[in-house]
Amino acid sequence: MTLPSAPYPALRLRRTRAHAWSRAMFAENRLHPSDLIWPLFVTEGSGVEEPISSLPGVSRWSVDLIVARAKEAAQAGIPCIALFPNTQAERRSDDGKEALNPDNLMCRAIRAIKDSVPEIGVLTDVALDPYTAHGQDGLVDDQGRIVNDATIEVLIGQSLNQAAAGADIIAPSDMMDGRVGLIRAALEENGHQDIQIMAYAAKYASAFYGPFRDAVGSRGLLKGDKKTYQMDPANSQEALREVALDIAEGADSVMVKPGLPYLDIVRAVKERFAVPVFAYQVSGEYAMIEAAAAAGAGDRDALVLETLLAFKRAGCTGVLTYHALHAARLLG
Ligand code: PBG
Which residues form the active site (predicted)? Predict the structure, then answer.
């Protein structure tokens, strides 16, 4: 008997792909409802649902209805929701002080959810853009610059405000330098040592955030861009520095954002650091998938599950996605 000199035909990788049972057995990665965090938009009123046209299938909900959404999420096995408020225009100001109001929309939503659905985690966004009249995430000086250290003072107040309302995970998305460490210290000093921080560590100045800005009502207000604080899409080494700093400052987990176009960053972070990494599949990515499905470019459910699985393959612990409820139900 002569042994083959080339791997083929002894090695045939199609063998393990030949049957559904075998494919299931050899799957290297799996998507589960507990991998998903569901972002939800809150608005004033009661019984209010406001569809967001640039984000088809996603609505803003008043506090009473957001509680019902949180219940559905928990029932579908989603471990955590992420809240974003659409602040009324008259409550927005240059200094974003509504972020510090213990009865602001965000705090009312946190309390209502924690009262009725205590089993679900609540992640709250820390940044000033839903509260500022200019739509920037930080305070702006008279020359139009975003002021780092003075902004952090407000972010600390915002974090403590959300913590007092019952937030489980504080997620600073503002990209000011040094904010994670100072927020961590303030949480410790105020008896909130068990509240997690998920740092938006590598957050890029992306063109994929448009529909989100419609959802929180900041798109029409924003002048200019966010390039002096959010990262340049050209950079990856810098993302590793951002992540290293946020870990050193006390982050429990780090986030890469946007998602799909930045999976190389997820992989690089995962290879370098022993830290849980989450990705945010952002509004523009969601809208692209919905548009592709509506145009007949692919099957919606298959597109959703394949893209979410790609996050797992890249090394993500979990994904923030507007498809979370739909995907959890498909998986469940
Ligand atoms: C702002 C914030 C943004 C998103 C989450 N938090 C937008 C921005 O930075 O302008 C985007 C999320 C999405 O597009 O789904 N602090």
Answer: 203, 257
Cα 304–chain centre separation: 16
Q: Cα of 8 to ligand 1 centre, how many Å?
A: 50
What six digits make up the tokens of 120?
A: 């679900």
Cβ(310) – ligand 1 distance below 6 Å: no
Question: Which of 242, 280, 265, 250 lies closest to 315 in space, CA to CA?
Answer: 265
242 is in an annotated binding site: yes
Active site residues: 203, 257
Rama region for 50: left / alpha / beta (φ>0; ψ in -120 to 50; rest): beta
Please state, in angstroms and rounded to a whole number, the distance separating the CA atoms of residues 2 and 326: 55
> Would the pLDDT of 324 be above 90?
yes
Domains of the chain are 30-331 (3.20.20.70)
H/E run at residue 121: strand 121-126
**C-alpha span between 36 and 193 (Å, rounded):** 25
The Cα–Cα gap between 130 and 126 comes to: 10
| Percentages of the chain per state (helix, strand, coil), in multiples of 5 | 45, 20, 40
pLDDT tens digits, 276-289: 999 999 999 999 99
Among residues 213, 149, 194, which one has the least CA distance to residue 176? 149
Dist. CA 31–CA 129, nearest whole Å:
32
Distance 130 CA to ligand 1 centre (A): 10
Which of 154, 206, 209 has most ligand 1 atoms within 8 Å of its beta carbon, as the pocket-test mutant?
Answer: 209
ipTM: 0.98
